[in-house]
Amino acid sequence: MRPLKVFARFDPPRPRVIRGLLATGLPIGVTVLMEGGLFIGTALLIGRLGPVPAAAHQIAINVASLCFMVPLAVAEATTVRVGHALGRRDAAGVRRAALAGYAIVLATQLLSAIALVAGNHAVVSLYTHDAAVATLAASLLLYAAAFQFPDGIQVLSAGALRGLKDTRMPMLLAAFAYWGIGMPLGATLGLGLLGGPPAGPRGMWAGLIAGLTVAALLLGGRFARSSRPARIHGLTTGQVDPMTSGT
After folding, report:
1. Is residue 16 situated within a structural domain?
2. CA atoms of 186 and 203, how far apart (whole Å)
3. Distance separating the N- and C-terminal Cα atoms of the chain
4. pLDDT tens digits, residue range 92-133?
5. Given pLDDT bands bounded at 50, 70 and 90, which one contains residue 246?
6. What angle do CA 184, 188, 192 make, to 5 degrees?
7. What is the total count of domains within the chain?
8. pTM of the entire predicted model
9. Which domain holds residue 40?
10. Is residue 238 part of a domain?
11. 87 vs 194, more confident
12. Which residues contact 241 (CB under 8 A, 6 or more apart)?
């Protein structure tokens, strides 16, 4: 450890830097909590419907989560690339980094969607041989295929916005999409809260699709506005602070 000079210098805590990190990081944590909570809440509600819906949902969400790892990784890389371009005051580079991320995500999500549609029964057979569970899980994988694109776009847009240190407004937009649209709609359809026949897990998954689609539209639109050249120039010169502007 000696060449690293780990103990060569000690600095006291710098409150201003810590406040800046918290101002950027806490909204990111809340956004992740909102999205994770949507899927956890969905699983808990589906669990009320019985063991077969719960098992089928677990299979489908496990496969969907595996597919999600690719756009999540690309979003993390996009955060870094957008941040570097912002530091260079390169507005074109910001958009180029984001567009590269969108292109990769759309391509990989297309492959995932095709695989889920064409091979849903084969994928489910790796998890279970129970006919009732397999039939329902295979149908849910079709819903998973439907939200591959909005899921990829929303996570990529969130990652690009984090590269611009724009996290507070995306947090509010995500909370609205997930808990203002996705969860209420899914619970209403899935559990028949308005008096209609409950659609079960398929209704809950329809709510997931709606919530992710709204998040993709809102966050994508937010990045389109935040990445305008004039906006980037304001960020790099200190004229605009996305943490406090709220626009």
Report:
1. no
2. 6
3. 47
4. 999 999 999 999 999 999 999 999 999 999 999 999 999 999
5. very low
6. 165
7. 1
8. 0.86
9. 27-233
10. no
11. 87
12. 235
